[in-house]
Amino acid sequence: MSVGAAVERRVGGSQVRRSAAKYAAVVRTQLAHGLAYPGDLIMRSLTILIFMWVFIHLWRSTYAATGQTSVRGLTLNNTLWYLVLAESITLSKPRVATAIAQAVRDGSVAYQLSKPYSFLGYQAAVTVGDALVRGAVTVLLGGALVAVMVGPPPSMLGWPPAFAAVIAGWLIDFCMATLIGLMAFVVEDVAAFEWIYSKLILVLGGVLLPLDFLPDGFRRVAEALPFAYTTWAPARLFVSPDPALFVRLFGIQLAWLAGLALLVAIVHRQCTARLAVNGG
Amino acid sequence: MPAIVVDNLRKTFTAKRKSAGLAGSLKAMVRPDRTTVEAVQGLSFRMDDGELLGFIGPNGAGKSTTIKILTGILYPTSGTAEVLGFVPWRERRKLAYHIGTVFGQRSQLWPHLPAIDTLALFGKIYELDHRTVRRRIALLSEAFEITHLLETPVRKLSLGQRMRCEVAASLLHQPRLILLDEPSIGLDPVAKQRIRDMIIRMNAEEGVGVLLTSHDAGDIEALCKRVIIVNHGQIVYDDRVSALKRRYLTVKDVGVRFVEPIAGDVDIPGAEVVKVGGGGYGLKLRFDTTVTPAAELLAHIGALGGVEDVTISDPSLEDVIRVIYEQAAAGEAIRPADSSWPSVEPEGSEGAP
After folding, report:
1. How far is A179 from B5, CA to CA, in rounded Å?
2. Distance in angstroms (rounded) separating the CA atoms of residues B83 and B100
3. Where are the beta strands (DSSP E) in B92-196?
């Protein structure tokens, strides 16, 4: 068979639509990639069961000690479902900073830069695809434990706003982690920065406990920083599916996302100009 | 229009240096010592549309750096380059629609998925419509003999099978030019030959230009009509492969087996005796055809005794290239000197010592 025939022209539509189709395809491929080994996927997600087991006993005792059914507007059921989502968001996100730093160090960034897409857009799509697979399994496992031991989620209405906020939260996290990963262009090892970042997310992002439980001054500081919008905002929207709260928190998420994406684009531009790919 | 035009291209990197030991580490923390590495030093060359061009050099010669500049991955320090009319580092994404890349030591295929999934993804990335993707996959699967491999997870393929899929993936969008950076690295001779045959076929049938770097002289010999040799970031040779042979393969190796042992020291004018062996039955010589005509040499050999078998062979292209590297490194004129030729076993010299 001859292979001499010319390729027919490209798909039509606007540039935005064509770009969206590209990154959607990357997300789909990453979803398939994540599902390639379901046994391995489930085993890695079992950590959530240990975490939630500890949290269930811890918060049951705490609520019992206070003698109240609601603390700062959150019942025991709210708090534990908040934690299911917060822990799932954190456990399921890939280690973006490490992956980017590794790609820069070992030279595999060369392949990703030689295709007609944005390197950062591609990485973001891979991140969302990867996190979606792991997140779904983690929420199912953690949610099943809490549903059995504590009760069903407070409202099914919380799923749609939480889903949108989780995606925005992963993208905010992606931007901050990418900034750390891009430091590999300057420093030898980004592990220390990644460690500090993960601890900031743990405390200021609301992974350890809902920011609502922090002292007022500390809470206000935490809510003014981007870390809160990676985890606290989506988990809070899940247990309090209030339209006004969604507009406020999702709006802040989009504002942080726009600002951070711009910053990442500027830093990335500077970094690629000084890129020294290994093997060259 | 030429596919590639490069003019006085330079790329320098800054690298850290550290003295040995704890003291060196402490000193590097306070006052890091930096050194500038000139990876590419004023390269200039052209490549025609549809040409098969070899681009070779020893490790650290600057060839991969040049390829990465030409794909838009690296910015040059100075100089100009155009690939298919695009300035790569300014128009990387536009250029990417028209070129394909294969980096032999990296993979562009998703390891846990079958290659067909990556090909489908590339169809989206290159904005091809469904019909075109299906047709291209069918054509390339047949050409690269990978139809039966497309649904196997990539990590379960052998290196040779994976490389065929890698090259096929790089051709999905029917690029005008592919840049192959050591595509045959680690492959066995049969797998290498299959890849070479397929590249030649794609060049002939689709007119795709090929810029190839390789440490395997066999790749260059089999694929390329022209070769550029770089060393220390500079071009030390730019001509046809056949000219390389003509110019440098003037030295021949000769293996002789005599009917009876030859006695005494052997002295043949214009030839270097490499070895007398096999109990005096065997003789290995090396001579330069520009100094000693072959007929004259054979006459001298015949005078030594009855000849049972004689073989005359060229040093391999690999040896030629090695000598060029060594001469370039020593700053010598690029011309083989008899004394610097490596010792090689003449091909087809069974029966000779």
Report:
1. 36
2. 12
3. 99-103, 177-181
Which residues in chain B have their CB less than 8 angstroms from residue A185's CB? none
Distance CA B330, CA A41 (A): 57
Cα A253 to Cα B215: distance, rounded to the nearest angstrom: 51
Q: What is the number of alpha carbons within 13 Å of residue B15 lying toward its C-beta?
A: 12
Residues B236 and B265 placed together within one structural domain of the fold: no
Considering only alpha carbons, which residue of chain B is nearest residue A13?
A: B127
Measured between CB atoms, does B92 come within 8 Å of chain A? yes
How far A24 CA sits from the closest chain B CA (Å)?
9
Find the helix or strand (DSSP H, E) in which A196 lies: helix A191-204
Interface of A with B in 98-127 (CB under 8 A): 107-111, 113-118
Indicate whether B156 and B305 sit together in one domain.
no
Of B218, B245, B272, the domain-final residue: B245
- In a domain? residue A62: yes
Dist. CA A81–CA A89, nearest whole Å: 12
* CB spacing of A280 vs B39 below 8 angstroms: yes
| Cβ within 8 Å, pair B74-A116 | no
Find the residue in B nearest to A17 (Cα).
Answer: B127
- Contact yes or no for A116 and B124 at CB 8 A: no
Domain that holds residue A264: 18-273
Total domains in chain B come to: 2
The two three-digit tokens of residue B352, written as one number: 């000779």
Tokens describing residue A117:
């897409």
Measured CA to CA, the distance from residue A45 to residue A132 in angstroms comes to 12
ipTM for the whole complex: 0.83
- A243-258 pLDDT per residue, tens: 999 999 999 999 999 9
Q: Looking at the structure, tell me whether residues B223 and B267 fall in a common domain.
A: no
Domain count, chain A: 1
Model confidence pLDDT, tens digit, residues A115-159: 899 888 998 999 999 999 999 999 999 999 999 999 999 888 888
Q: Are residues B124 and B83 in the same domain?
A: yes
CB contact under 8 A, A3 and B143: yes
Among B106, B110, B206, most A C-beta atoms within 10 A, so best to mutate, is B106
pLDDT, tens only, B237-286: 888 888 877 777 677 888 999 998 887 777 887 788 888 887 888 988 88
Q: Tell me the pTM.
A: 0.79
Same domain, residue pair B280 and B212: no
Cα of B113 to nearest chain A Cα, Å = 6
